[in-house]
From TrEMBL:
GO terms for cellular component: chloroplast. PROSITE patterns: PPR. One of its GO terms (biological process) is RNA modification. Residues 645-738 form the DYW domain. This is DYW domain-containing protein. PPR repeats lie at residues 196-230, 266-296, 297-331, 430-464. Belongs to the PPR family. PCMP-H subfamily.
Amino acid sequence: MATLGNPLASVPISSNPTILTANNEQKSNPSTVPILIDKCANKKHLKQLHAHMLRTGLFFDPPSATKLFTACALSSPSSLDYACKVFDQIPRPNLYTWNTLIRAFASSPKPIQGLLVFIQMLHESQRFPNSYTFPFVIKAATEVSSLLAGQAIHGMVMKASFGSDLFISNSLIHFYSSLGDLDSAYLVFSKIVEKDIVSWNSMISGFVQGGSPEEALQLFKRMKMENARPNRVTMVGVLSACAKRIDLEFGRWACDYIERNGIDINLILSNAMLDMYVKCGSLEDARRLFDKMEEKDIVSWTTMIDGYAKVGDYDAARRVFDVMPREDITAWNALISSYQQNGKPKEALAIFRELQLNKNTKPNEVTLASTLAACAQLGAMDLGGWIHVYIKKQGIKLNFHITTSLIDMYSKCGHLEKALEVFYSVERRDVFVWSAMIAGLAMHGHGRAAIDLFSKMQETKVKPNAVTFTNLLCACSHSGLVDEGRLFFNQMRPVYGVVPGSKHYACMVDILGRAGCLEEAVELIEKMPIVPSASVWGALLGACRIYGNVELAEMACSRLLETDSNNHGAYVLLSNIYAKAGKWDCVSRLRQHMKVSGLEKEPGCSSIEVNGIIHEFLVGDNSHPLSTEIYSKLDEIVARIKSTGYVSDESHLLQFVEEEYMKEHALNLHSEKLAIAYGLIRMEPSQPIRIVKNLRVCGDCHSVAKIISKLYNRDILLRDRYRFHHFSGGNCSCMDYW
C-alpha cells in the first residue's frame, strides 16, 4: 500500500482544493476521483489510487468507491479478481455496483460467477433488480448455456413487470436462440409491440443459427413489409440463410438489395456475401467479388480456398493459398480440412507434411484434428500415432475435439486398445467423445461392450444425441443384437428426446434384415413418418443379398433408384443377388443397362501402411514397383489355399465368365488380396497386416483372408466400408455375421 509521503508515485494528484483531516493527512476532493481514474493506465495505477483513497478516506464516499470499483471491474478480465476485493470493501454496495459486477462476470471467462453474484444480490441487497440488471444476468445465463437459469430469470422479469422492456426482450430473444429454443425466442419476439432493428436481427440470426433458414428469410420479408429498415447485420443473417438453403437466386437478390439501398459494406458483410456464393456453388460470382474486395482477411482467403476445394478444383485452391499475403495457420487448416472433407485424405496428409517443413507456422489443435481425420480415412496409423506423441510432447491438452479425433483415428486404424486407452485417460468426456468410443466398439463387432459403454454414459448424465444412437444401432446390427436394437430405437423419442432420422431407420432395417426379419423390415419402412432415403432401401437390398430374396431385392433396388438414379452400388448388389441365384442373363442385362446409362462400378481400392507409407491397390493393379513379386506371392497363396479344399465363390462376379480359370482369375485380382500379398512380403511376421478397403469386402475375399490367417499364422485386420474384420487362426471376429 502506498504511504502518505508518496501517495501516488505513478499517478499525478490533481492540485484541486484539499481538506485537512484531524491527523493533518490530506483528503482529496471527491470531484477529483474521475480525473485520477482517467489517468490510471493499468491495474497497478488503480491499486495505487485505491490505497490513496483508503488512506485519505475518499473510499468511504459511496460515489467515489463506485467509480473506482467500476474502473477495476470493466478495465480488463485480469483485473476482475481485484475488483471483487474492492467490492467486498464497500459497506453497502448500491444497485449500480451490483449490476456492474454481474456485467463484468457475464463478459468474462467465468460467466457462471455472474449468476452467483446475482443470487447473492437477491439475498443481500435491499433493492430489487432493475431493468439494467436483467440484460447482464441473461447474458451470463446465455454464456453458460443454462436454459433452466434463463427461464427462471425470464419469470422474474415478468413478475417485476419488465416484460415490455425492449432491451430485456432482445436479450431474451438472443438467449433462447443461442440455446436452440426457437419457439420461446419467437414468442418473446412476437410480444414486442415496437420492435427495433436489434429485435429483428436477433430473431433472424436465431433462425439461421437454429437451422431454420426458411423462417429467417420469411421474417426478413415481413420486416420489409413493416417498413423496418435492414442494416448490415440484417443482411449478414439473410445471406447466411441463403447459404444454408443453397438459394443462389435469393442470395443474388440480397447482394443487389445491399447495393441498391446503399447499405454500407464492411469486411464482415463482404465475407458473408462471399460465403453465400461459395456455398451456393457459384465460384464465378465468388471470384468476381473476391477480386473487387479492397480489404481481405483470413476468412476471405480461406473461404475461397474451401470453395475451390469443394468443387474439386484443387489447383485453384492451391493457387489462392500460394498468393496469400501471409501463410496463417488458419489457411493451412482450410486447405487440409478441405482435402480431408472432400475425400482426398492423401492430399491432406501431403499438405500437413509440407506444413511440418514450414518454420514460420506451427500446427494448432484444428490442424491436428483435421490431420487425424485424414489418417483415420486412410488407415495411416504411423502418422496418427506420431501426432499423438507430438500432442504429448507439446503439452497440448486433450480437449473434446482432439480426444474424439484420436479415438476415431485409432479405432479406424484397427487399434481398438489404443482408442480405449485414450478414452479412459481423460477425466471429462462430452457426448462426441462417448459417441466416438461407442462407434469404435461397434465397427470392431463388440456390440455388448458398446451397449455397456452407453449405460456408463447414462450414469455420467451425458445426454445422447442422434449420432450416439446411430453408432449404438450400428453396434447392435454388427453383433446381431435384434432385441436390443428394437429397444433402443423405440426409446429414442420417448425416453431420450431424440427424433429418429433416416440413418436410424436405415440401421434398424439393417438390424432386422441381417437377422432374416425381412417382413418386419418392410413393415417398418412402410410406417416411416419420413420419406425413406436411399440408405434405407440399400439396407433392405443388402439383406436380400444375404437371404437370396430376388423378388424383394428387385423392389428395393427399384425404390432405391427412384431416390438416387445414379447409385451404381444398387446395380452391383442386385447383380450379385442374380449371380448367387444363377440368373446370369439378368446379370448381363443389368451390366448392359449400366453401360448404356454411363454408370460404372466404383473400383475396389485397398490400402496398406508399411513403414509410414501408404500403398494402394486397385482391382488387377500392376502399377506397383513390386508388382511381379506381389503376383508371384498371390500365386503361392492360391496354390496353398487350394490344398486346403478352397473353392472360389463365383457369385461375387459382376458378369458371367464362361471359363472356370477366368472366373478364378477375376476373383484373385481383387484389391484386398493384392494388399494382403504385399503385406506378407514386406511386413514382419509379428506385425498385424492392416488393410483399408473402400467397398464392402466380398465373400470370396473374406473366406480367403480367414484361410491365409491360419496358413501363414498372421493377424489380418481388414476395414471395409462398414466394419472391421479381424482374421486370426482361420476365424473372423464377425463370426461370419456381416
